[in-house]
Amino acid sequence: MSAALPAASTTVSTAASMRLLSCHACGLLSTRALEGLHCPRCGTALHRRKLNSLARSWAFLIAAMILYIPANLLPMMTAQSILGTTHDTILSGVVFFWISGSKALAILVLIASVVVPLLKMMALTMLLLAVHFRCTWRIRQQTRLYRLLEVIGRWSMLDIFVVAMLAALVRAGKLATITPGPGALAFAAVVVLTMLASLSFDPRLLWDALDANND
Q1: How would DSSP label each residue in 2-25?
Q2: pTM of the entire structure?
Q3: What average pLDDT does this structure show over 178-201?
């Protein structure tokens, strides 16, 4: 007769429960006694959690959500030629590329300029709500989602780069000129604000709910 196996423990040890500090820059674990000093590896200031992380993240994120509407409705660029003046938004540019046969470019602009910023704001909202409601569901996956946001954030300025290159190339000619429109400014603000919201968010807050449940 075999002895009953003990039930597996569901308790997860975190840095906070072990009185350790995790550097938010390089991830090195240090003792709580070093709080307020600098990380021995990268020199970043050590603190248990970022100051006012949630408030600053919410402020940047809400501002980005508000500006996301004019970023898609206002003209991204204005083209002036002997045939007249045209104003193109992000979506009209996607339609133009699609109709002209550049479907790959249309899909790239659609994903980088519309889908990625929207999904990034939705993911940040989910993470902030998870911290607010102390959600312990799939915390590891939530942390990986935040790391993914940091990776894809660098591609969010694709439209601004395209407009800048077009303006520089076309201005070299005599028949037409391209200038950035108000939509470009709004879109750039959305990108910067979402990046600031992501940088202000402290992923270590996700694990505080687990520590609270284990107490």
Answers
A1: PPPPPPPP-----TTTTTEEE-TT
A2: 0.78
A3: 86
